[in-house]
Fold this sequence. Notes:
single chain, 78 residues
Amino acid sequence: MTQHRHEQHPQHAHDDGAPIKDCNGAMNKLFDLLDGELTPERERQVRSHITSCPDCFTHHDFEQRFLQFLHEEALATD
C-alpha cells in the first residue's frame, strides 16, 4: 500500500494579507471563500474580483455547484 503525504492544497494556503490583484490571487482564496473561512474584508476583495472577471466567475460557479451537489448527495445517503 502506498502512503501519500498530505500536502496543503494551494487554495488553502495561509492568508498573507496581500491584496487580491489578479485571477491567481482570487483563485488561491476560492475554497476558503466557499468554506466561509475568510475575514469579511478578504471575502469582499475576492467576491469583487470574481464578480468582475468572467473566467473567475465561471470557475467559482462550477466549484460552488459541485460542492452543493456533494452536500446534497451526502444528505441523500444518510
